Amino acid sequence: MAKEKTTTLHKILTVVGTVLCILLVPVLLINLTLIAKSYINKDEVPSVGGYVPLIVLTDSMLPVISSGDLIICHTVDPDTIQEQDVISFFDPAGNGTSIVTHRVIEIVEQDGARLFRTRGDNNNTEDKELVSPADVVGIYQDTRIPGAGNVAMFMQTTTGLILCVVLPIVLLVGYDILRRRRYDRVKQSDNAALLAELEALRAQAAATATTTEEKPTEE
C-alpha cells in the first residue's frame, strides 16, 4: 500500500515538474533573447520573430486594453497602417524611450510625409504630437494576455526573478537528484533481496542434496 502511494506521488510530482519545465523554459528563452537583443540593438525595441511584447501601464485604451496587460504587436511597414488601426509608437512628446499604444484616428500628409494622428480610446482628446513612421514600433492585432504585464514586471525584479525562475529551477533539480537517489536505493534494496532469495534457494538445494546423500540405501 505504501509503495502504491509512493508511486502515485512520484507520478504527480513528475507531471508537475514537466508542466513547470514546459512553462518556464520558453519564458526563460524569450526573456534571454529579448535581453540579448536589447543590449545588441539599444536603439530598437527587442522583438522575437517580428513580434514585440509590450506591457501596458495606463488605462488610456479601455475597454480594449487595460493597464497591466501584456500585448503583442507585430512589426509592419508603416505605409500599410490605416485609420482605426491600433499602433505602438515612441511617444513624440516623451523622453524618447516611452512607448504608447493608441488608435490612429487620422492619417495626415505633411511635406510629403505620411504622419499619424492618434488618440487613446479612453481619452477625450487626441495626442498632442503627430507620429512619424520612424517612431512606429508595430501594430496591435488583438493579441493580449490580461494581467500578464504585472507578472512580467514582477519577474523583472530581484524577488520575482528568484521566486519565478531561480527557485522553481532549484526545486526541479533538487527533486530530480532526490528521485534518482531514491531510485538507486530501491534498486539496491531489490537487488539485495533478490540475492538473499537466491542464496536461500541455494542453501535449500544444498540441504536437500545432503539429505539425499545421507539417506541409507535399502538392500
Give the secondary structure arrangement, pairings included.
Blueprint lengths: L1 H39 L10 E5 L14 E5 L11 E5 L8 E12 L2 E7 L16 E10 L2 H8 L2 H57 L5
Antiparallel strand pairs: 1-2, 2-6, 3-4, 3-6, 4-5
Helix pairs in contact: 1-3, 2-3
Radius of gyration: 33 Å
Question: Could you give a short account of the major beta sheet?
Answer: 6 strands, antiparallel
Percent helix: 40-55%
The chain-level structural class is alpha+beta
* Share of residues in strands: 15-25%
Provide the domain count.
2
Strand order of the largest sheet: 1-2-6-3-4-5
Shape field: rod-shaped
Commentary on this structure:
The protein is an alpha+beta fold. The protein folds into 2 domains: 1-38 and 157-192; 47-147, Umud Fragment, subunit A, CATH 2.10.109.10. Helix content is 47%, strand content 20%. It has helices at residues 2-40, 148-155, 158-214, and strands at residues 51-55, 70-74, 86-90, 99-110, 113-119, 136-145. Strands 1-2-6-3-4-5 form a 6-stranded antiparallel sheet. Helix 2 (148-155) packs across helix 3 (158-214). It is rod-shaped, with a radius of gyration of 33 Å. The relative contact order is 0.11. The model has no long low-confidence stretch (mean pLDDT 80).
